[in-house]
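Incident log, structure service

09:12 report received: a user says their structure output differs between two submissions of the same chain.
09:20 pulled the input from the user's history:
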Amino acid sequence: MSLSLVLAALGWAVGWFLWGRPQRLGARPASVLRSARRLVVVVPARDEERVIGLLLDDLLAQDRAPDRIVVVDDHSRDATAEVVAARGPRVEVLAAPALPRGWAGKTWACHTGVRAVSPELAPDDLLVFCDADVRLAPGALRAVEAEASARGGATSVQPFHRTERAGEQLSLFCGLVALMALGAGRRDAAPSGLSGPLIATTLAAYERAGGHEAVRGEVIEDVALGQRYRDAGLPVSVLLGGSSVSYRMYPEGLRQLVEGWSKNLASGAGAVPRWRTALTVAWVTALGSAAADFVGAVVAGSRPLAPAIALYAACCAQVAVLGHRLGTFGVATAVAYPVPLAAFVGLFLRSTWRTFVHRSVVWRGRTLPVGERAR
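09:34 re-ran on a clean worker, output below:
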């Protein structure tokens, strides 16, 4: 067997190690929870008219009803505020004040929401920050409260990634690498940060960590906020949403997908331990090497045929299993995994260029400075 096949096989094993054993929301019995605490949901929203109504309907249908639902309209250019207002008096909409220098839009919206609700909250009351594109199954909020009560600090949920169009399958490795880099599946160490779509924390823990003000200019505010919790001696958790919490990322097409991952990938890689980044690079390289050996063996006859086919099949199986746990990434995508793998590499290179050379990224019509306080 050639050295490249041996190294690729070792890299394949590294992938299982990096994924680990992520815990899924709903494993803890939420039905036994009896809490007198208040629970407030804060939703930062910018140009979310297509999806925010679905989230609000899910929240209003929960068996554990939120005491307040506050949507902070982050200067939307569409009908986001009107969609929220149509849900009636159980949902409040706040217009975010003008974005101050040094703040990113999402951190300012979350901070604005907390300032509005904190005067009526006790230290042990629960804040849930939820992105507008998240969907919640019945009972999801009760499960979140149960986990947050048991774990303390900040508990976050990585939603199950639903896809509907072929182009959305290109997010496969972006999502896998993001979770691996966080260390969400490692039981022997705390994650490096939080997963931003849904975060639950008590008001006391939030204030002790410095809240969103402590990460006001961060583009990847969820990872940075998790680090502030860890610096304050507070636990952080990342759970998989499974059948309870889901979302559809970048439904507007390839341009939105490219902008979104270009904003996140390079900054996220710089915020995780170097050894984990190195192992992630080894895994991605191993998958690429296995694909190259497979093509070399089948097309050019330049590699031993049986080992190359066996290793490529093992890589396809690994990608299929992990993709199924991450979201609706099908077997066909796993068999053709070099395509989304190449997309990931291209997106990462673009993100690196935007982050470290251009020093800015673009999202939702805003140009966000990187490496300095956001404007």
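09:41 both user submissions now match this output. Likely a transient worker issue. Closing.
09:42 reviewer note: The chain has two domains: 3-19+271-369, 30-252. The mean pLDDT is 91.
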